Amino acid sequence: METTASTLSRKAQIDQTATALFRTRGFAATSMRELATALGIEAGSIYSHIRSKEEILHRICFRMADQFFAGFANATQDDTQPAAVRLRRAIESHVRVLTLDVAASAVFLHEWRHLSEAARNEFLTLRERYEVNFRRLIQQGIEAGELHAPDAAFAALTLLASLNWLPNWFKPDGKLTPDDIAHRLADQLLLGLAHS
Amino acid sequence: METTASTLSRKAQIDQTATALFRTRGFAATSMRELATALGIEAGSIYSHIRSKEEILHRICFRMADQFFAGFANATQDDTQPAAVRLRRAIESHVRVLTLDVAASAVFLHEWRHLSEAARNEFLTLRERYEVNFRRLIQQGIEAGELHAPDAAFAALTLLASLNWLPNWFKPDGKLTPDDIAHRLADQLLLGLAHS
DNA sequence: CCTACCGATCGGTAGG
DNA sequence: CCTACCGATCGGTAGG
């Protein structure tokens, strides 16, 4: 009952601090001692809140996955819209999730390989399903004559790759808002660089 | 003199085996014992050929950087060509370097953060310079009316992000040759997904 | 949340 | 290239 909106639980603090460390130094190169020091406590104390180092990574990765899925579902649920419009909205949603927490996004994108094999397989299945969602949207757009691409799978991979580079350079306090960026990315990917 | 074209020097063997391990398990999570086992020797023996674990990573990263720069210079040296054509050739060169050794490319793209601070700074300076090369090419294309984009820097980042995702899915024995892929990528990035 | 500690493993070296 | 080893550090635990 002491907890206010601005006070993170100790567990949430651990997650947040670990996210920043995992992002800059990598999961394997980050020690629990470093994490403890950053939190201002002793290494052993962390284990009253979590079971293992991997558990933190697991939570970060799967929380982000949930957000991407929820955002996509919400952005594309309106079937009355053309596929190209729904694709635009899906792109905007993806960018919004990425920019809301760039550190967690970077961990989600790069550190999943350090999950245990079982968790890693589950993670990759989710990622594959998410890619299929984009692929299907592009495929629908092709069939409706709104989009053109020799291969929807290829197009989906390229599109997501462009979006996922964002955590590498996005600064929350920059001139461009997440929505500005989303629009530019969508324009560039949909319209191309060549003058028409 | 025993060395034939198909026989790698021990040092080259170490680099190659380490590249594969660094790629799948990450630099920090790969131990010198694992590397030794993969080579069929004892851990201590590696140090007759190299000075440190980081030296291997250093060589992989900077060798790839050299290849990207050499390829770009070669692809864009003909000033009589339009900027859009030179950009296409630069894309093809980049894809060629990536596909020639996807494992080394993946290490180059993801593991540079484990270089020592001095080497890391040098590496990032090179990467920045490479990106500027693409940015300038795009800028020239915009000024010549061959390309259109609200921001050349933004366009360059997005373009390279799409290309650099390649090592994550490219299979050397797949149906598409590197040149096929380069053409498709160039088409998609230059022409866009939207029907014109 | 701390103190004190566990066994395991790390990168690297000396001497042959 | 191996054997034998170094000091340091790792993730994690017991007991308070």
* Sheet with most strands of chain A: none
CATH homologous superfamily of the largest domain in chain A, by name? Tetracycline Repressor, domain 2
What coarse outline of chain A follows from CA principal-axis ratios?
elongated
Assembly state of the chains shown: homodimer
Average pLDDT rating of chain A: 94
Structural class of the helix and strand makeup of chain A? mainly alpha
Number of strands of chain A: 0
GO molecular function, one term (chains A, B): DNA-binding transcription factor activity
InterPro entries (chains A, B): Homeodomain-like_sf (IPR009057), HTH-type_TetR-like_transc_reg (IPR050109), HTH_TetR (IPR001647), KstR2_TetR_C (IPR041490), Tet_transcr_reg_TetR-rel_C_sf (IPR036271)
Organism (chains A, B): Hymenobacter jejuensis
DNA-binding region (chains A, B): 31-50
Task: Tell me what you see in this structure.
The structure is a homodimer of 196-residue chains. By secondary structure, chain A is an all-alpha fold. The first copy, chain A, folds into 2 domains: 7-50, Arc Repressor Mutant, subunit A (Orthogonal Bundle); 53-192, Tetracycline Repressor, domain 2 (Orthogonal Bundle), CATH 1.10.357.10. The first copy, chain A, has 8 helices and no strands. In chain A, α1 (10-25) packs across α2 (32-39) and α1 crosses α3. The longest helix of chain A is centred in the middle third of the chain and has 27 residues, at 117-143. Chain A is elongated. The termini of chain A are far apart. The A-B interface holds A 24-26, 28-29, 84, 110, 113-114, 138, 141, 145-151, 154-155, 157-162, 164-165, 169, 184-185, 187-196 and B 24-26, 28-29, 84, 110, 113-114, 138, 141, 145-151, 154-155, 157-162, 164-165, 169, 184-185, 187-196.
